[in-house]
Design a protein that fits this description.
Shape: elongated
Number of strands: 0
Number of helices: 10
Protein name: Transcriptional regulator, TetR family
Number of domains: 1
CATH superfamily: Tetracycline Repressor, domain 2
CATH class: Mainly Alpha
Pfam families: TetR_N
GO molecular function: DNA-binding transcription factor activity; transcription cis-regulatory region binding
Structural class: mainly alpha
Order of helices and strands: HHHHHHHHHH
Keywords: DNA-binding
CATH topology: Tetracycline Repressor, domain 2
CATH architecture: Orthogonal Bundle
Strand content: under 5%
InterPro entries: Homeodomain-like_sf, HTH-type_TetR-like_transc_reg, HTH_TetR, Tet_transcr_reg_TetR-rel_C_sf
Distance between the termini: 67 Å
Length: about 190
């Protein structure tokens, strides 16, 4: 007897709801019962859709990364030049409304670095997702080696500034540092 076919739309809806729950509550205590109760489904429903807690966590990480990259990618698209594109990314990522999302992102990042084999997919994409967009923002005539070096500097600087902002909530100091960095890209 064949099992019920997977309803991919329902799984995607549940995954988005699990991601929203995880952004709000963190992933340290991510387990079937609290998530199911919050979503108004049974733990069995989650098991049916995600099979194991580890697979659910992997799916959450993948969707979170996709959300962040899609939103920042939209900020970059259509922006003329690297400095303008990076400014759009900074404005989006430093928005206080995105704080919980990025706190989760950094928590996941830390956990992935401690267990790289478990989070290989996350680690493989967490930098690579940004690199192509940032290289492209430098224009078709940019030297590929220099464009990669600049994109690497941008990713590291934006993430460092964002981590500082989330840690200290010193918006004015971090904003001034970000402005200084963005001005250097315009030169």
């Amino acid at each position: 007897m064949a099992g019920r076919p997977v309803d991919h739309q329902r799984r995607a809806e549940l995954l988005d709801a699990v991601v929203d729950f995880t952004v709000e509550h963190g992933f340290a205590d991510l387990s079937w019962r609290p998530v199911a109760a919050a979503l108004g489904v049974s733990p069995t429903t989650l098991v049916h859709r995600f099979v194991t807690k580890e697979q659910m966590l992997q799916a959450v990480l993948g969707r979170l990364r996709e959300r962040i990259f899609r939103a920042t990618g939209e900020a970059v698209r259509g922006q003329p030049g690297l400095a303008t594109a990076v400014r759009a990314v900074w404005e989006r990522t430093s928005d206080p409304a995105r704080g919980a999302e990025f706190r989760l992102f950094f928590a996941v990042y830390g956990r992935a670095l401690q267990a790289p084999e478990q989070f290989a997919d996350f680690l493989e994409h967490v930098v690579a997702d940004w690199m192509e967009s940032l290289r492209a923002a430098q224009g078709p005539d940019a030297d590929p080696v220099a464009a990669t070096r600049t994109a690497t500097l941008v990713v590291a600087t934006i993430r460092g500034l964002l981590l500082d902002l989330l840690t200290t909530d010193d918006r004015e100091r971090v904003r001034e540092a970000a402005e200084s960095f963005l001005a250097s890209l315009e030169e």
